[in-house]
Amino acid sequence: MGKTLKTHIALLAACILLSSCSYTYYLNSGKEDYNNLMYAKAKGKFNKGIQKKPESYEVLRMLALTLQKMKDYEGAEKAFELAMNYPQVTLDDKYNYATLLMSRDKHTQAEAIFREYIAERPGDKVAAAMLESCQFIELFRDDTTLYKIEALPLMGNFSMFSPVAYGDGVVYTAERPVNNGENPWTGNSYNDIYYATSSGDGFSTQQALAGVFNGKYNDGPIAFNTSQDYAVFTRSNSSNNGKKRMKNEQNYNNLFLYSTQKVNDVWTTSNELSFNSEDFSCMHPALSRNGDTLYFSSDMDGGHGLLDLYMSTFNGMEWTEPQNLGTVINTAANDVFPAIGPSGELFFSSDGHPSLGSLDIFKSEREDGVWRKPINLNYPINSTNDDFAYNIADSTGYFSSNREGIDKVYKFKKKPSGKVYIYGTAMTSDLIALAGVEIVLMDMETGEIIRNLETDADGKFDLELQPDKLYKIEGKKEGFFSKTYERSTVHQYEDEDLELVFEMKELIITDPSSNFSLDDKGIYEVDNIYYDFNSDEIRADAALELDKLIQILFDNPTIVIELHSHTDARGTEEYNNALSDRRAKSAKAYMLINGVDPNRIGTRGYGESRILNKCKDDADCTEEEHEQNRRTEFIVTKV
Asked: Distance between CA 593 and CA 601 in Å, rounded?
């Protein structure tokens, strides 16, 4: 009996020892895989370690970190939550858990943990930024209607990111499911660069981008110049055109930047950029619009964080030594995936600036050679997960996000969101402020009167125009010609301040049968309605001025006018009378073609009877002086 008991005890001790040994193996081997970025293998070993020793803090912690790297945020949260109950928990663990909670949209919980962390490390600027993000999270969700967003229907890919418009479609970087996983990070294929051709609302083909791009290991992202005959792309440090992976002394395979040129529609040999090094990675290229400035991210020495943004210029022979973009852009965390917008603005992603969580997309503008404080693009471009690789052309573009649990490519259309603030003034022709002018703001599509007001004692009025509409503003006052201004905000993407002046001419009714003088206030000259000598044809410059008269008639739909045409003094009186009559009728015909009621226009030719200057009979005058007399005027005969 005693011997049997001793045997059982010995067997139990052996089992415990074997279990402990196997647990230690899975933990240490998993850590080695983790340090070598072999996260798929590390995950399996840590799971087996937990089975051997469920109460182990260290294996729970390592599993949580691994799942976070693999972007399995739900699984990582569960593992971290269990690890937080152990006394061995570190400040770094708390920080990682808090950032993970932000990715899970649990900002209240994350805020409490960040407070604990900052109490111990008050100088951590990134943690302070994350705490600020949690405190003011609703500000990042201020406008949910600014963009229309849809995932691109690119099937057959496991994950895909960094979309760039190219040719008749889009180029992107993707990994695809494979039977025997090639990439130890994910267990899928390595990243390759693909080209999808647009067809209607979808894509007709998806294929690896032809040329020198896709080797055996990771390739992508890629950037093109405007003419799309020069490209810079990311590739695992390799030789033999990407077929042999190179590792440094730490057994780590860094990422390099390569360039290639398109000659006769074929991408030629790839060339390694001169500043690459086995000691650090260079990745995520972006080219300026003219192609002479390269932006990228790197963990090279001398940076401010984990990954910083750099720029290099092309000197005609090679890319120059990279320059760090500085601490306004770069944080102590990751600042990655740069892109240059249509106006030269910098877009990039960061998990060190205040954000919704994980990587958010930011915009910075450069003024006088200095980058301004980055602005978060907010929801819905940004989410609580990774949002990155933003590229825009005018009001549409692409970006990447794993908001659905996996990296996907999204297309967006920016909706008009800018308002126009009208600061108006009504005044007389003598530039005297005109009070009591009725201002009517109308929706041109519906005919609805949105606002009706009067100018104040200083002739002032203010209006606010909403985005994505067609507006008409009318100013009217008894005894004056009405004025209108039309404004579209359909493509108004930014707020705008606009000064609007309504110069209101006094409306005087003149009896056409009366003997009115040349300087009568009721005679209105149509500026620059001049005719060529001995011609009644409407010149192009005259047509523009007649269009203004047509607008006056449309703005004042009840008035009736009489057009007066005048000639210079050259030629006989009879001839000039006939010529001026033809000119007046020619002007009327032009106005009728453009929609004016014929009953609202009378005509009269005055010939040479109303000369404005000295050029009468045989006076010696220049052509310009004669031209002043060949003019068109009008009077208002009825309201």
From this structure: 13
Query: How far is Cα 193 from Cα 220, in angstroms, rounded to an integer?
Result: 6
Beta-carbon contacts of residue 110 (< 8 Å; ≥ 6 apart): 98, 99, 101, 102, 130, 134
CB 217 within 8 A of CB 253: yes
Which residues fall within 8 angstroms of residue 50, CB to CB, at 6 or more apart?
56, 59, 60, 63
Which has the minimum average pLDDT: 44-53, 380-389, 396-405?
A: 44-53
3-state secondary structure of 222: strand
How confident is the model over 492-515, as pLDDT tens digits?
A: 878 899 999 999 999 988 888 777
Return d(Cα 185, Cα 176) in angstroms, integer: 13
Instruction: Give the Cα separation of 580 and 339 in Å (integer).
Output: 64
Half-sphere exposure (CA, 13 Å, Cβ side) for 537? 6
In whole angstroms, give the CA distance from residue 272 to residue 282: 11
Half-sphere exposure of 532 (CA within 13 A, CB side): 6
Please give the average per-residue pLDDT across 626-634, as a whole number: 86
A 10 A CB-CB count for 88 gives 9
SS3 per-residue string spanning 329-348? CCCCCEEEEEEECCCCCEEE
Cis peptide before 221 (omega within 30 of 0): yes
Is the sign of the CA dihedral 183, 186, 192, 194 positive or negative? positive
Closest CA to 21 of 46, 42, 52, 43: 52
- Tell me how far apart the alpha carbons of residues 187 and 280 are, in angstroms, rounded to a whole number: 24
Q: Of 341, 284, 294, 298, which Cα lies nearest the Cα of 314?
A: 294
Q: Is the pTM of this model over 0.70?
A: no
pLDDT (0 to 100) of residue 434: 95
Per-residue pLDDT at 471: 96
Strand 202-208 with 192-199, pairing: antiparallel
Alpha helices in 121-232 (DSSP H): 125-135
At 401 the pLDDT is: 95
The rounded mean pLDDT for the chain is 87
pLDDT band at 15 (very low <50, low <70, confident <90, very high): very low
| pLDDT for res 7 | 46
Q: Give the number of other CB atoms < 10 A from CB of residue 364.
A: 18
pLDDT exceeds cutoff 70 at 561: yes
